[in-house]
Design brief:
The complex is a heterodimer of chains A (262) and B (379). By secondary structure, chain A is an alpha/beta fold. Chain A contains seven helices and eleven strands. The chains are: A alpha/beta (262), B alpha+beta (379).
Chain lengths: 262, 379
């Protein structure tokens, strides 16, 4: 079974520091990581591939330094890694990004499954996975929290909803976007790190390599226009009222009266 | 000259830090109290290839190098020094001598399972009356009909009882002094090979330290490492490498003392402000940070020299001397910064100070390191 995993290298937001004067992100020297839910995607692909003797290919679009994130996937056990990197891709929104990834996957060839993390922690759009499936004209299931069964033709998954889950069956090939509940990503192994740096290579593909239409990539191919960015005002913290239902309701009414809401 | 870590070593560092934080640190205080050997952690380390870090892949290792290995000891010791010494003693003292001096058969039989992490290693030189004075060995080995027969007692053996394979030193010819010492590979379970009780130690309490007792213990003649009389040379060269491991352990302990001190100095308020705003604290922390960085450069350089296959004996002794004395000095300071709280077992610095002391003693005391260094400088 051939499996493709798409990952993104993102700033490690747990270590983000803000400039207290300007309120902006201090980007300098910020460590980067593989987007956490993309690691769940990779873990699932590796776990599925291992008993079947399958092949896991990881693809990422990004600048040259994303090579490091791809090496990490090799250290975790991915069989090959492709970096889609070209100045022409710069400024891409999710549509242009998913188009470029689709071209890379087409060039890479046959596959049964594509795994993507649900969303990246730096953009939170959750759009690239579904858009990629549309470009490739294959079915997709988002928010996968468990794989129920998988054979040569079908995959059955649990798809998380806000207040429950649904069981979805899809034909293969299909694209799945993963939640962190799906699994616990493995550590890279020590010998895997040696393999990733000393024995394997990360292939670098450009827009030309994948035969992308110049009008559909980068800033030019991006229909999204950023009108303005701003820091949202901080929401007040909620207050939890305890006690019996009756007591809590009484407290609530008191508080609302005190604030002249009722 | 370039002090930047390679991307590969950066990834190793991140892996070791994450592993130490998530798998080692959570149980460190508990196993210090109970003295329970960290089998769960050691098995996880084995499965990730940490127990064979510096050995070639063809021999079951991870194919990394000494630098990656000592970074593992450093980061793991920063979380739990007892777990750190299990790794250091296994790799440097248990597996390395067979890797360096063993025959291809011995490597296949003993070292490959150690590098894969299937079997744990240990090293037995010290005796009740032969510590620094290695020539005072009273354990004897006599060749009898294709077998060596060992009799004697070893003390303070790290990984004693938990290890499967032991490098044991014994006199094969007392008349030759140091040149009469030979090294043997011993397996746990050999008839006549037993263990004393667990030592009740001040620090590194979750590591295993026992006596080894040999009573008419017979092993195949093919279990000799090197030739008869090679023992002292094997012991000294093995300890040269081991010292970089212990230096890294001390470095990890010292770094933990700094981490705890910085955090506490920012949090703890006195006279209405954090104690880190007082110069008395700032100076202690500045010295701590500076000397730890100096220790790190010495330790990494010794590891680098070993990886470059250059002489590293003096540099390993300097690294071990300086890193262990830095660890001792600054774990005491870390308690001072914590005041009364630091004296309580609720705070990590109390354990750090107890763990630090051993690094000035084992694998050559600070005095032995000074002997090695001065002998090299004055020759």
């Amino acid at each position: 079974m051939k499996i493709v995993v798409c990952i993104k290298q993102v700033p490690n937001t747990t270590e983000v520091k803000f400039d207290p004067k300007t309120g902006t992100l201090i980007r300098e020297g910020l460590p980067t990581i593989i987007n956490p839910e993309d690691k769940n995607a990779l873990e699932e692909a590796l776990a599925i591939a291992a008993p079947l003797g399958g092949q896991v290919t990881v693809i990422s679009m990004g600048p040259a330094q994303a090579d490091y994130a791809l090496r990490e996937t090799l250290a975790m056990g991915a069989h090959e890694a492709v970096l889609l990197s070209d100045r022409a891709f710069a400024g891409a929104d999710t549509w242009a990004t998913s188009y470029a990834l689709a071209k890379a996957i087409e060039k890479h060839g046959e596959f049964s499954l594509i795994f993507c993390g649900r969303q990246a922690i730096d953009g939170d759009t959750a759009q690239v996975g579904p858009e990629l499936a549309e470009h490739l004209d294959i079915p997709h299931v988002t928010y996968v929290r468990r794989i129920v069964s998988l054979d040569e033709k079908y995959v059955v998954v649990e798809r998380a909803l806000e207040d429950g889950y649904e069981v979805v069956e899809s034909t293969l090939p299909a694209l799945l976007t993963t939640l962190k509940e799906l699994n616990v990503p493995r550590y890279p192994s020590a010998s895997g790190i040696v393999t990733a740096f000393d024995e394997k290579k990360v292939a670098v593909w450009t827009a030309e390599t994948v035969g992308a239409d110049p009008a559909k990539i980068g800033l030019k191919g991006s229909p999204t226009q950023v009108k303005r960015t701003f820091t949202p005002s901080v929401k007040g913290t909620g207050k939890i009222l305890t006690g019996t239902h009756k007591e809590a309701v009484q407290q609530l009414v008191q508080e609302l009266r005190a604030k002249h809401v009722v | 000259m370039d002090f930047t870590l390679s991307k590969k070593h950066e990834m190793f560092r991140t892996l070791f830090q994450e592993f130490a934080t998530q798998e080692v640190a959570p149980m460190a205080a508990e196993i210090d109290e109970s003295g329970e050997f960290p089998w769960v952690t050691i098995k996880k380390m084995a499965s990730l290839g940490f127990l064979g870090l510096p050995f070639p892949k063809a021999l079951g290792g991870a194919g990394a190098d000494t630098l990656a290995y000592i970074m593992a000891v450093e980061e793991i010791s920063c979380a739990c020094a007892a777990t750190g010494v299990v790794l250091s003693a296994h790799v440097s003292l248990g597996a390395h001598p067979v890797y360096q001096f063993g025959t291809p058969e011995q490597k296949a039989l003993f070292m490959v399972p150690q590098a894969k992490g299937e079997k744990l290693g240990a090293f037995a030189l010290t005796e009740p009356n032969a510590g620094t004075d290695a020539a005072g060995q009273q354990t004897i080995a006599v060749l009898e009909g294709g077998e060596y027969v060992l009799n004697g007692t070893k003390v303070f053996i790290t990984n004693g009882e938990v290890a499967d394979i032991y490098i044991v030193f014994a006199m094969t010819d007392k008349s030759k002094g140091l040149k009469g010492i030979s090294a043997f590979i011993m397996e746990k379970g050999t008839p006549g090979f037993t263990f004393g009780p667990q030592e009740n130690k001040m620090g590194i309490r979750a590591s295993s330290t026992t006596e080894l007792i040999f009573e008419d213990c017979r092993i195949p003649a093919s279990n000799i490492l090197g030739k008869e009389g090679d023992g002292f040379k094997i012991a000294m060269q093995t300890l040269d490498g081991g010292r970089i491991g212990i230096a890294a352990q001390a470095l990890g302990i010292a770094q933990a003392a700094l981490n705890e001190s910085v955090r506490y100095a920012k949090e703890r308020q006195q006279f209405g402000k954090p104690i880190g705003t007082f110069q008395a604290m700032q100076w202690m922390i500045a010295d701590m940070g500076t000397e730890i960085e100096a220790a790190r450069l010495l330790v990494y350089r010794a590891a680098w020299l070993k990886d470059m296959r250059r002489p590293f004996s003096k540099e390993a002794a300097m690294a071990k001397l300086y890193a262990s004395e830095t660890a001792m000095k600054h774990t005491v300071k870390a308690i001072q910064i914590h005041g009364g709280y630091g004296y309580m077992k609720d705070y990590k610095v109390e354990r750090l100070m107890r763990d630090a002391k051993i690094t000035e003693i084992y694998e050559g005391t600070s005095e032995v390191q000074r002997m090695v260094i001065s002998a090299s400088l004055l020759k």
